[in-house]
Amino acid sequence: MEKNNIGNILLHQFVYEHPGIILKELIPCFDSSDLNKELILTKSGNNVYWASLDLSLNVLVNNIFENTNIYYEYGRIGIGRSPLFNYRVDIAIPKNERVTAVHIGDGSYGFSLGNGTTGGFLPEIIGIGSNETDAGLYFLGIAGNNIASDTPLIILDGRNAYGKKLDNRPVLGITSGDYNNFNVLVNYSGNVKINGELDTKDVILNGVSLSEKINELQEQIEVLKTKIT
Predict the structure, then answer these.
(1) pLDDT in tens, the chain (229 residues)
(2) Is 175:186 a contact under the CB 8 Å cutoff?
(3) DSSP sequence for 124-154
């Protein structure tokens, strides 16, 4: 057994060319078609063969990079630990510590995801725009076709750990730097609370247009005024 000039281990097999006559050394040969493959020793019955290893197969490799904490396991990558469950990329970050796990940006502005609290674990997504004319975070959905559907293009789905409907806290809150005073709050029953003015052309309640209803009432008021005068 020896290493070649790129660090691969080469195994040599000694067999009888003719029983009882001579030993012959079989050395694996590498040609241009085998540059991306290695040779492994496989055993079938009492015979030993040289076989080509297909590197596209899923293999288990821990600490694939020396002196790093990067793992590869069955087509999945783990950073900080072996990848959990069926996550294709799994990054370990601690509880009780504000940590950014992923950042994509130009060095000053960008998008990050991590733990947002020092008291447990709170998934936090942050987007920072490059100037005042840019939104800090976009959620953009693109439809794959023109087929009509009742399914919204973007869905925010809050549920409990069992995949069931929430019944103990609001589903969605919108605020501007004040977690004790939400501008918009949607509870688990779908009721919406708005803290501020509602600027809209119309509001539909139970199929009734409020703007049309207000116009009808205004017309009735004008008729009553005319009768009174």
Answers:
(1) 555 555 555 555 555 555 554 444 445 554 444 444 444 444 555 554 555 555 444 444 554 556 778 888 778 888 998 888 889 999 999 999 999 999 999 988 999 999 999 999 999 999 999 988 888 898 999 999 999 999 999 999 999 999 999 999 999 999 998 989 999 999 999 999 999 888 888 888 888 998 899 899 999 998 888 888 7
(2) no
(3) EEEEE-SSTTS-S-------SS----SS-SS
Q: 3-state SS of 10-35?
A: ECCEEEEEECCCEEEEECCCCCHHHC
Strand, helix or coil for residue 5:
coil
Would the pTM of this model clear 0.70, i.e. be above it? no
Which tokens is 94 given? Answer: 């601690």
Half-sphere exposure for 115 (CA within 13 Å, toward CB)? 14
Judged by DSSP in three states, 49 sits in strand
